[in-house]
Amino acid sequence: VGTNISLISGSIRANTSKISRLNEIVSEASDARDLNHRIRSSGIVFSNTDISVAHAALGALDSGSTVKISAITSLLSRSQKSLYNTPASVEGDIGALDTLSMDEGALRGFLEEIGASDGIVLGTPVYFGDRSSVANKLLQQTNIRRLLKDKIFGVVSVGAKRNGGQETAAIYSLYEALMQGAIVVGSGPPICQYGGTVWAGDKGSALEDGLGLSTCYATGRQVSYFSGILDEGAKSPDEGGKPRISVIVTMNTRDNYVGKYLEDYFGPYMDKADLDFINLIDYEIFRCVGCSRCPCRIVKDDPVSSGMCVLKDGADHMRQLHARIKGSDCIIIVGANNTKDDLVYRYQVFMERTRYIRRNNFELSNTPVIGMLLNEPEGINNPMHNIKVLTSYIRHNTMMLKPINIILIKGKVVYSDRFDDHLALLGIIKKGRSSSGAVSISYEAEGYSDKTYDNMRSERS
Ligand SMILES: Cc1cc2nc3c(=O)[nH]c(=O)nc-3n(C[C@H](O)[C@H](O)[C@H](O)COP(=O)(O)O)c2cc1C
């Protein structure tokens, strides 16, 4: 039995009354082209967001999930058109008017469906580089009712401009869902970015953006795949065993300012997990030199170098670091935001050097990643750490878990997020990953002319 995925259109222009027909069309479609063909020949005009979530639904359906598309506009009061002085020429354009009141009965049913689903794809038009107020209703409601906790969450977004904010809209929603306890995923292989990003303005014109719609399809597939891992793990959550966790300290002072906070924080968990603390400032890490062919996948007579970075200088420690984190059940990326002048950064250089790991058919696939920030409110040297961790590590085909925030005032911890929920979830994911079969994954060098490695595949579990 597959998982249940809810796909939600957050457009005010959603074709509310025809969403059930869209569900039928998705279930009848054999592939993405056929889906577009069926939408066109239905003669029904759907909003661009509707079309984008339909493609995400097809991706999830093809991965074995049960899918249901709904429109948030079905929850809105729709009887108030007279409030607007609308010329007859634009009357037909207007789908639903949100008077900020909601139909309580419809809302209850909608939230029950969300509660019962294993994964969610939020579709939104881009409004000023963010999601729409209609799409926002979903995250408001899930927050009030804590509905996203431990659910897989992805986003598809549509904007009229080519770089109109599809990515910012996705990132804001992904980050907020993360803070609500969702497990956040991107579009997965072969490109693996933030989710579905579609370029379309006129209503219905999303059908012309095949490339964009393929990212929506991939996002639906990704949400379905990860929800399957969780579902598998939840069947016998206690069998996961102790997770092996790499705690990577990406910036620190020479006298190990970060270390004492980590000792205090993780102290109570030392017998529940195998924690490996990796202090990057103890290592030499050279910069990425930006090879267009990466990694040096085939090195003649040197199997050890296959799939590795071309940099072979013995003084560079990336190989040792790679060996240490390989096979971890979780990676925690620790950063600090403070007013210190003697903080040594390894964050950026380490991140850029992990490129060959991504390009080696996503070696970190399926690994849960957690951002962790020691945050002094007056600090300005690294205020966005946990957002940066989300947006970079999601590209490693990982699942992102709720960040850990530790607030310090004058060096004293005044608040810290608990780690217990993370640990429970890591047990489930570890078990789910070991019980789900490996999948064959390929990286694609989109944006580069050298396609030598595009069709090489690796088994990842
Ligand atoms: C209030 C408003 C703000 C918008 N802001 C942006 C924007 O920042 N970037 C962009 O690319 N498109 C923007 N658009 C265009 C819509 O994102 C675009 O038309 C989209 O296809 C609408 O999706 P829909 O058909 O699902 O409603 C905006 C549209 C409106 C109405």
Low-confidence stretches: none
What percent strand?
15-25%
Count of distinct strands: 16
For the record, give the distance between the C-alpha atoms at the N and C termini, rounded to a whole number. Answer: 20 Å
Structural class: alpha/beta
Biggest β-sheet description: 6 strands, parallel
CA gyration radius, whole angstroms: 23 Å
- Average pLDDT number: 94
**Shape, principal axes of CA atoms:** globular
- Order of H and E elements: EHHHEHHEHEHEEHEEHEHEEHHEHEEHEE
Approximate helicity band: 25-40%
Descriptive key words:
binds flavin mononucleotide, alpha/beta, 461 residues
Please summarize what this structure is.
The protein contains 14 helices and 16 strands.
Describe the structure.
By secondary structure, this protein is an alpha/beta fold. The chain has helices at residues 19-28, 32-42, 48-62, 88-91, 104-116, 133-145, 166-179, 210-235, 257-266, 318-325, 347-353, 355-359, 385-393, 420-435, and strands at residues 4-9, 66-71, 119-125, 152-159, 183-184, 196-199, 244-249, 251-252, 274-279, 330-337, 344-345, 368-375, 399-409, 412-416, 439-441, 458-460. The strands form 4 sheets. Strands 1, 2, 3, 4, 5 and 6 form a 6-stranded parallel beta sheet that branches. Strands 9-7-10-12-13-14 form a 6-stranded mixed beta sheet, with helices on both faces. Strand 3, helix 6 and strand 4 form a beta-alpha-beta unit. It starts with a strand and ends with a strand. The mean pLDDT is 94.
